[in-house]
UniProtKB/TrEMBL annotation:
The keyword Protease applies. It comes from Blautia obeum A2-162. Pfam families: Transglut_core. The lineage of its organism: Bacteria, Bacillati, Bacillota, Clostridia, Lachnospirales. InterPro entries: Papain-like_cys_pep_sf, Transglutaminase-like. This is Transglutaminase-like enzymes, putative cysteine proteases. Keywords: Hydrolase, Protease, Signal. Residues 214-271 form the Transglutaminase-like domain.
Amino acid sequence: MKKSVFARSFAILLISCIFCSILSECGSSSKSSSSEPPVYSPLRVLVPEAPGSDTLGSSPLTLDVSNITQGYFAAQSDSADLVTSLQITAPTGVLYSYFIEPGENAVIPFTEGDGDYTVVGYQQIQGDQYAALYSETLTVELENEFLPFLYPNQYVNFSPDSEASKLALSMVSEDTSDIDALKQIYNYVVNNLSYDYDKAETVETGYLPDVDETLSTKTGICFDYAALTTAMLRSCDIPCKLQIGYTGDIKHAWIDVYIRSKGWVTNAVSFNGDSWSLMDPTFDSSADSDDSEAIQDYIGNADNYTVQFTR
């Protein structure tokens, strides 16, 4: 792509930041109905595991599928110098691509929920030439449909030790209302980060955000803003989807957030590369209020947005 395309591709970010109330219960979480997110007390950052009890493939790219009911699997590369890749065909037919650097691991989410996922592994031969290693079909039945949007993954990468997670949890407690959590996390991100126009002009295809680097430098492109906000919300047990797609012919990234009284809410906060706006419907937390029309008036026509990938 030309630099102008990159600038255009990353210059606009739509962030939807209406999120769910955080409920509490005694003790640790128990298995919950898939119709609502799981409840954790105390709040905790979910950590993917790769115990090796169920694996597929072989060197140089092994897949640990021990915890697919939790909404993810782990890809583990033992290649010394060559990139490996996964091409995943989701139940809807959407093709997802993931690249794993030599010797690295990656958490891959099942963002389309239950169904059959076809996973094809590849190893780099040279340059952009790859050879197929294997093809497997994974039949996924999630314990809870919200889990893929609470765990970290390759695109939204965080852990309990991440500065982004620590910061989010320092802002939010079990008694914090959803609106107060929204104000604190949203205001921190937009008031402390600056948009990096030089980076937007030069970013390469395949770029992955580093949420702690974004916090440290306090600069980033729209993808960085989206990933950081998603990581902070997920760290507080708030389900979020990092959406990548288009509005018209301009590439966008935006966040959909689950609110218990309304379901998934999209496109509620807008960033145009220069300024941010946070609309009043975002602050409506009343479960019995008749605000659906106001929300729809704000987010506009959903037909204007085309999702390519959910991460």
